Amino acid sequence: MLEIRNMDVHYGMIHALKDVSFEVHRGEIVVLIGANGAGKTTTLRTISGLQRPTNGQVILNGVDITNVSAQERVKMGISHVPEGRRVFPGMTVLENLELGAYLRRDRDGILEDLEMVYERFPILRDRRKQTAGTLSGGEQQMLAIGRALMSRPEILFLDEPSMGLAPILVQEIFDIIQSINKSGTTILLVEQNANMALQVADRAYVMETGSIVLSGTGSELMSSDEIKKAYLGG
Amino acid sequence: MDKLLQQIVNGITLGSIYALIALGYTMVYGIIRLINFAHCDIYMIGAYVGYFCMTFLKLGLVPSLLIAMLVCTILGVLIERIAYRPLRNAARISVLITAIGVSLFLEYGTMFFVKANVRTYPEVTGILAQRFKVGNIVISMQQIILVGITILLMALLQFIVKRTRLGKAMRAVSMDRDAAQLMGIDVNSTVSFTFALGSALAGAAGILVGIYYNTINPLMGVVPGLKAFIAAVFGGIGIIPGAMIGGYFIGAVEVMVSGYGGSMFRDAVVFGILILILIIKPSGLLGKNTREKV
Amino acid sequence: MRKFIALGLVYAIVQILIMTNLISGYFQATLVTIGINIILAVSLNLITGFTGQFSLGHAGFMSVGAYVCAIVTMRMPTIPGFILGVVLGAVAAAILGFLVGLPTLRLRGDYLAIATLGMSEIIRIIFLNLEITNGAAGLIGIPQFINWTWLFIFTVGIVLLLSNFVKSAHGRACISIREDEIAAESMGVDTIRYKVIAFIIGAACAGIAGAIYASYFYYLEPNLFGFLKSVDVLVIVVLGGLGSLSGSMLAAILLALISTYLQSFPEIRMVLYSLILIVIMIFRPQGLMGSREISLSVFSKLGNNKLWDRFKSQKGGH
Questions:
Q1: Rounded to whole angstroms, how far apart are CA atoms A216 and C17?
Q2: B184 and B12 in contact (C-beta within 8 Å)?
Q3: Which end of chain C is more exposed for a tag (fewer CB within 10 A), N or C?
């Protein structure tokens, strides 16, 4: 459903992404792994329209969306949980979730999805009147995911959802990601925690200094010696 | 005691004006981190539009007020569109220099068309000219109307920002522009909306000042503009209630300083306050102490 | 060496033209304005263009130099008195630059701009209320010492001083602050110190420009040094190019000629200035010269076709 063709991105003089191509099929969990600065976040930002590529195409459901604005892409079914969660700190949990549904006009549908998010993350229901800045890291991550679900996305991007969380919370977040996927949302996940990510992945790509260097199914990569040495600590 | 109370009444009147102008500075700064130097000139244009409506079209206060606000709204949106938007990703100093340019352009462009001399608003008559005595304090109908309209507009603004969809988008963009875009918020139209709101308030301030002080001129915006900006910084720039508090504070200080014999140094005191805030707590009264991101 | 011959020639030619009355009094005044504006612009360029600290208070520093020099020379109307006045004016402005610089330089960008603007307004209001400055009425009958020779010495001296400064290690430290303050700091540049140095030098030069103004136009009032004066200087720096001393000089000359021409249409002049600011920022934020410099050797090669070709290819290239 999503295809990236020969994408290049430059920041001034820096060549951040070099000829990146990959695809995500409907219903999959696809994972991008790689070290810090390999270009994973840039890749997601470019697909969701926050960053302009200097070259290449982004194709969603057969439509070239390379020149479509970020907000239009939300309408087309893309939702992006950015790195560092980026909840709106001065707004309440409820206001954050409502903003997730900013482009939707179907009041009943929004209320339904709000209920769905509260069921998935009961803590958010308890905290709905609290400002988002006062939540803990894990709660903010849940809010960020919940907010992204409020646009009823076809495909959800998650950028380092486990960053800075306690191991028990990391497990919980990955369980949630799998359950979101089971309910029909395609997922593109960026992670440094390769171990966890490859366990849930249908397919995965490995990035190094702006290029994709390896790809395969999650289990293939888990058993690859190179990956073990470089990313799985063994 | 009576004198103090009278000063307080006058301070609230003046503070209302500063608060109305400060709101525009603070909202624009909040959303695109720009000191919009041209904002004070939008206020001046508002005063001229009001003058035109009341003197030549013989319109009443309310229609004149609405027309002034409308014209200023359009002007503010156009300025953002033409002069600031092309520089959205440029260095901040470039945008600031552009803003100074736009400010001078409005001031001297206006001067070119209407000449530099002072214009006088038509004499108020009837109910507007009434004065009330409460004890030994005199309150004029103009003051009541000025403060009343200000409070009404501030309440309306608060409603728009807190409750409406566009208001929420505005707050989202000023907190985190990228995240707002990921929600599907159109940053450009949200910025335009912010300029529209701020400029409408400045336009209202312009015509209210015209009615209250009677005289207007093309450079009338410069000093009140700086003071309103100081009010915004005092309250915590980017924070809407901060601008209101700051406006009334600066108004009160100014009236007190001139009321008790320091009128020559009135402006210097206000600038001194600015420098003190910037040194002691640049984030302002309601701001959180955070180091500016680099 | 060629540099000094060229400078000497410029000086001599103008001096001869003045002595033979080929340059009218009116044009001499324009010449003085150009000199003053060059000094103001190159010194503001040091602060804003090279060090990257946006200051809107240059008129404040200038006014201090002007008033100190005026007060001294009115009491000692001799050449040594005049020199003392200029020196004291520069020192007073430098002290002010230091006092303003130290606390406010922790502020960044737009906040610094507003703080320096506030400072310069405070100074103006103080001058409006002091007895020694004769308040709003101002000082009249300041002894006139400035002539072409003095003007030439001060202008050329300051330009040479600043161009040597920006080429020195200190100058590079200042530029590194403009480019990336955090990186400069982590490279071991004492950023606060260099920002204060830039402010002190810039303020002192502005003080000298003020002293020249007082001594040539023999009349001072506080409102000459309002916000618009600071903007005037800013327009020159922006037009010439932030970070180009020769650009500042070129723009100072150009704008002085334009304002002389538009003397009787002050509104049009200001509308033009405002458009210059906006258009330059949107279409050519680097100014006329960018951060390049023209050296005097360029002039001697002006007839050379190669240079013309290079100029054309540069224009096409970027």
A1: 84
A2: no
A3: N
Q: Is C181 close to B271, i.e. CB distance below 8 A?
A: no
Domain contains B166 = yes
pLDDT in tens, C80-130: 999 999 999 999 999 999 988 777 777 777 788 888 998 999 999 999 999
Per-residue confidence in pLDDT tens, chain B, 294 aa: 788 899 999 999 999 999 999 999 999 999 999 999 999 999 999 999 999 999 999 999 999 999 999 999 999 999 999 999 999 888 888 898 999 999 999 999 999 999 888 999 988 877 888 888 888 889 999 999 999 999 999 999 999 999 999 999 999 999 999 999 999 999 999 999 999 999 999 999 999 999 999 999 999 999 999 999 999 999 998 899 999 999 999 999 999 998 887 788 888 899 999 888 888 888 888 887 554 433
**Nearest residue on chain B to C135, judged by CA atoms?**
B264
Which residues are within 8 A (CB) of A158 and not within 5 positions of it... i.e. 6 or more apart?
A81, A145, A177, A187, A188, A189, A190
Residue A67 counted as domain residue: yes
Q: What is the pLDDT of residues A55-108, one digit of tens each?
A: 999 999 999 999 999 999 999 999 999 999 999 999 999 999 999 999 999 999
- The closest of A21, A60, A17 to A42, measured between CA atoms, is A17
Instruction: Residue A230: give the domain boundaries.
Output: 1-77+187-234
Q: What is the pTM of this model?
A: 0.89
The reply to whether residue A50 touches residue B182, judged by beta carbons under 8 angstroms, is: yes
Instruction: State whether A86 and B181 contact (CB < 8 Å).
Output: no
Residue by residue, DSSP assigns B15-67 as: HHHHHHHHHHHHHHHHHH----TTHHHHHHHHHHHHHHHHHTS---HHHHHHH
Q: How many domains does chain B have?
A: 1
DSSP category for residue B263 = G
Delineate the domains of chain C, giving CATH numbers in brackets: 2-312 (1.10.3470)
When divided into structural domains, chain A yields a total of 1
| Type of residue at A129 | K
Q: Determine whether the interchain pair B275/C281 forms a contact, defined as Cβ–Cβ distance below 8 Å.
A: no
Which domain range does residue B196 map to?
Answer: 22-220
| Chain B positions in Cβ-Cβ contact with residue A48 (cut-off 8 Å) | 182
Q: What is the rounded distance in angstroms from the CA atom of residue C33 to the CA atom of residue C256?
A: 7
Is the CB of residue C110 less than 8 Å away from at least one CB of chain B?
A: yes
Q: Which residues of C touch B98 (CB under 8 A)?
A: 277-278, 281-282
ipTM, two decimals, is: 0.92
The answer to the question of residue A53 being in a domain is yes
User: Do residues B76 and B195 lie in contact, with contact meaning Cβ atoms separated by under 8 Å?
Assistant: yes
Within a domain: A45: yes
Q: Which residue of B80, B97, B276 to mutate against C (max C Cβ within 10 Å)?
A: B97
CB-based contact C285 B94, cutoff 8 Å: yes
Of A71, A88, A98, the CB nearest to B175: A88
8 A C-beta contact, residue C143 and residue C218: yes
- Is residue A215 assigned to a domain? yes
Chain C hits for B86, Cβ within 8 Å: 282
- Please indicate, yes or no, if residue B260 is contained in any of the structural domains: no
Q: Hey, what are B195's tokens?
A: 């300029």
- Is B44 within the bounds of a domain? yes
Q: Name every residue whose Cβ is closer than 8 Å to that of residue B116 and which is 6 or more positions away in sequence.
A: B217, B218, B219, C267
Q: What is the CATH number of the domain that holds A63?
A: 3.40.50.300
CB distance A99–B172 less than 8 Å? yes
Rounded to the nearest angstrom, the minimum Cα separation between B41 and chain C is: 14
**Cα B97 to Cα B84: distance, rounded to the nearest angstrom:** 10
Residue B38 lies in a domain: yes
